[in-house]
Amino acid sequence: MVNLKGKNAIVTGATRGIGLEISKVLAENGANVAILDVQLGDESSIKEVEALGVTCKGYACDVSNPEAVSEVFKQVLADFGKIDILVNNAGITRDSLIFRMKQDDFDSVLNINLRGAFICTKAISPHYLRNRSGRIINIASINGIRCQAGQANYAASKAGLIGLTKSNAMDFAKCGVTVNAVAPGFIRTAMTDKLAAENPDAIKKYKEAIPLQELGNPRDVAHAVAFLASDAASYITGQVLGVDGGLGA
Ligand code: NAP
């Protein structure tokens, strides 16, 4: 556990998967959470986070749309008063070999995974600069470091996100703001559960490739984010923390 009591966080792409788990772990550690997602659905994610005893509000927003992000961040700041933590988690995949990859598949992945993080970082910057404090945590991927076939768009977006993290860390270094990335490896999600049901051999192969011989859980990623968001990590900036069972070692 870390102490995030009284802190306010924005987590993008947070109605499900890793983003929801990050929101829950931040809340368990005392932070209030603004959940941003392209669609809020039945808002059950907001209720799940609220049930942990913090304030949680949902905002529908496409992170790749600068005007929408600007409006929503204004509203979040009006509702929460202050933001301490921004987690750029929203991300998509559109995998295929480069020979078959459509231009739109390349553009949309770069737009959301990389440009979306840039847009949200720009939107929070004036607030962080005024307060001379703040945390930015970008959710990258092992596939931005060690690549596999069929992910030219995704790997480029996540490698770009790592570059953005390091560069932004330098830009903000004199302003009391830290910028770090978490790079998950193979994490157990609805997608991997489906793959396990359809093709148990594929999951067996993934596990064999991982030094710790097991897939990670969204909670493993969330704990790394909570640590980087906490005062315990105040001297850490421009780093990429792998949560990958040793795959990136
Ligand atoms: P996920 O379950 O697909 O969740 C992603 C969330 O982002 C969804 O709620 C999605 O909304 C939302 N989103 C998509 N486009 C958006 C946009 N334009 N604006 C705002 N929100 C948007 O994915 P995940 O597996 O939890 O992954 C979360 C992050 O971790 C991603 O950045 C991913 O690249 C990274 N990661 C995941 C793994 C893994 O094994 N799962 C490994 C390494 C890195 P919709 O549901 O409406 O599409």
Strand tally: 7
Rg from Cα: 17 Å
Number of helical regions: 8
List the helices and strands in order: EHEHEHEHEHEHHHE
The bound ligands are: NADP nicotinamide-adenine-dinucleotide phosphate
Mean pLDDT: 96
The N- and C-terminal alpha carbons lie at a distance of 26 Å
Structural class call reads alpha/beta
Strand content: 15-25%
Classify the helix fraction into a percent range: 40-55%
Largest sheet: 7 strands, parallel
User: Looking at the structure, what is the overall shape?
Assistant: globular
Residue stretches low in confidence (pLDDT < 50, at least 5 long) are none
What topology, given as strand order, has the largest sheet?
Answer: 3-2-1-4-5-6-7
Description:
By secondary structure, the chain is an alpha/beta fold. It is 46% helix and 15% strand. It has a seven-stranded parallel sheet, sandwiched between helices. NADP nicotinamide-adenine-dinucleotide phosphate binds at residues 12-13, 15-19, 37-39, 62-64, 89-92, 112, 116, 139, 141, 184, 186-187, 189.
